[in-house]
Design a protein that fits this description.
Layout (H helix, E strand, L loop, with lengths): L2 E7 L4 E8 L3 H9 L1 H7 L7 E6 L6 E7 L5 E12 L3 E8 L14 E10 L2 E10 L2 H9 L2 H9 L2 H6 L1
Helix pairs in contact: 1-2
Length: 162
């Protein structure tokens, strides 16, 4: 399994997930750069993602929804802040109200940094989400963000091998 470490820190308001992949940085980058590949791994297997918009450039927007087994759709977005291809990008990640992708202010928004670094066996990915408050961090922890993110990230190995 790629996920090797998960830490949440209420003092720094962060959730950090570390994963190791047996593929070069450029290949792992392509998972995020290509919306069709990202759809195959974003979200837990029971809630596949559909990216409606995918603009991985500074100032770009990525709108998507996940579909439950019952057909219910959960909308979200990424507002891309920085991109350093192929090693990192930062974005604001939030929940959306509906297919308009307007921000749902009742749920937390996080600032995320995704970093990819070469290792002797492939790539180490470090995913850091920072929340505005300890309450916001706890809210997403209670919603199952660790389990859902780990399931999603652990799907990347199969995609990289194909």
């Amino acid at each position: 399994m790629p996920v090797t470490d998960v830490r949440h820190d209420p003092d720094t308001l962060t959730l950090t997930i570390t994963a190791d992949f047996a593929a070069p940085v450029d290949r792992v980058w392509q998972v995020y750069a290509d919306p069709r590949q990202l759809e195959r791994v974003w979200g837990p297997p029971t809630h596949p993602a559909t990216f409606v918009d995918h603009d991985l450039v500074p100032g770009g927007r990525m709108n998507y929804y996940m579909t439950s087994p019952e057909g219910e759709k959960y909308y979200a977005y990424w507002d891309v802040v920085t991109v350093e291809e192929p090693t990192s990008f930062t974005f604001r990640d939030g929940f959306a109200l509906d297919e308009t992708f307007a921000r749902n202010t009742d749920l937390p928004e996080s600032t995320n940094t995704y970093e990819l670094a070469p290792t002797d066996t492939g790539t180490r990915a470090t995913y850091v989400a920072t929340y505005a408050s300890a309450e916001a961090l706890q809210q997403v922890l209670d919603m199952g963000v660790v389990e859902g993110s780990s399931l999603a990230i652990n799907q990347i190995d199969e995609l990289l091998a194909s």
